[in-house]
Amino acid sequence: MREYPYLYSFSLRAYYETIPEIQKSVQENYNDISRASEMTVLEKIDTSKFRKDIDIKTMYTEIFYAIDGYMLKKYRSNRIVPDEIEKEVIALIDFWKKVYTQEM
Fold first, then answer.
1. Which pTM was predicted?
2. Apex CA 96: angle with CA 9 and CA 38, to 5°?
3. What is the pLDDT of residue 28?
4. Are 42 and 56 in contact (CB under 8 A)?
5. Half-sphere exposure of 26 (CA within 13 A, CB side)
6. What are the CB-based long-range contacts (under 8 Å, 24+) for 71-74?
7. b/e 48-69 (16+ beta carbons within 10 angstroms → b)
8. How far apart are CA 17 and CA 25, in angstroms?
9. How open is the CA angle 97-103-98, to the nearest 5 degrees?
10. Widest CA span in the chain
11. Would you list the DSSP string of 58-95?
12. Which of 20-29, 43-52, 91-100 has the highest mean pLDDT?
């Protein structure tokens, strides 16, 4: 995002594309990669730090949807400011730590 802003901008435009043919192609490719990435994360995650009543897969999905919605909002508002995004995402991560982990 910082080093290659034009590439990042292109990636966002492709990801949120609305032309049906392009959207279908991008989403099919993305879905394959996303599933593989999710499996890797879920295999490697140290679940001992999380509350015992937390379903890790549901948590992962909720965080994914939250970040996806957040970035869609940024994309639509044309406010892709890396420092701002980093600050706001760190605040979300801190919130999720309070909600999902045993650290209180």
1. 0.82
2. 60
3. 86
4. yes
5. 14
6. 71/12, 72/16
7. eebeeeeeeeebeeeeeeeeee
8. 10
9. 30
10. 47
11. HHHHHHHHHHHHHHHHHHHHT---HHHHHHHHHHHHHH
12. 91-100
Residue 72 has pLDDT above 90, yes or no: yes
Give residues with Cβ within 8 angstroms of 59, minimum separation 6: 50, 96, 100
Of the candidates 92, 87, 69, the residue with the CA atom closest to the CA atom of residue 15: 69
Structure tokens, 61 = 């999905």
Residue corresponding to tokens 């045993």: 102
Residue with tokens 């032309």: 19
